Amino acid sequence: MVDPATFKELALSFEGVEEQPHFEKTSFRVKKKIFATHAPGSHLICVKLSEVDQSVFCAIDKTVIYPVENKWGKQGWTFVDLKKIRKTILKDILTTAYNEIKNR
Q: Using CB atoms within 10 A as the burial measure, which of 14, 57, 67, 73 is most buried?
């Protein structure tokens, strides 16, 4: 389990990341592009992965890491359950999402 404060700390640990509001959520951005979001009070975060990376991470456990259930999910947007994820895997997911956006 990872608490929201730890998620936020991890997301902000990458170079050049800014925290900004995004509708009712908090977004974490690099180069003005979102790589992760979190709604206050929720145990789910959403990250932007490539389709291949999404497939790899979802294969770990689809009850913990799974695509958003609409066209956004087909574009790589992926939910992660903070109540069930291990910190080491979350760090890998965030690193992958950050690099996906940073290297565009």
A: 57
